[in-house]
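tmp note - Endonuclease NucS C-terminal domain-containing protein
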Amino acid sequence: MSPPCTLAVEEPEQDAVDAGVIQQWRVTHGKTGDSLVVRIFEVIHDSTHELGVDPGLIKDGVEADLQRLLAEQVDVIGENLTLVRREFPTAIGPVDLLLRDPAGGTIAVEVKRRGDIDGVEQLTRYLELLGRDSHLAPVTGVFAAQEIKPQARTLAADRGIRCVTLDYEDMKGIESGVPRLF
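out:
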């Protein structure tokens, strides 16, 4: 039964007790009122284990994690690059990473978990805006994602944007177990 639900432990009715039911649980859906009744006939083993404080759900590999790791490892984008800033502010939103190349050129990097056309469009808008700033021009773009859809690669290539596929496990320093040639 899908959430939200409540669990109530009930005393079984006399006919259920006569049938051998020792305990009855009722799970009730909070919105629809649907209920599921579970009848317990025998308890073979019952134990309780203290698991400590619940840390809550921690999602690993979100866009912010990729961005942080990439900021620490800008060599994944190219050699001899330096990080200018993460979340570089613009009038239309922050550019994930702003880098400088040895020649003084600026590189705007848009980071996504799954790269699609919308991400390329977003980076295109940033490039157009940043290119107007004489302190930053010329600005090139890099679209970096764990997975880049073919349509996004085609659009990026058409707009002069380089695509980089990110290996999150490798960036974290964890061996993925996938055989590699190099």
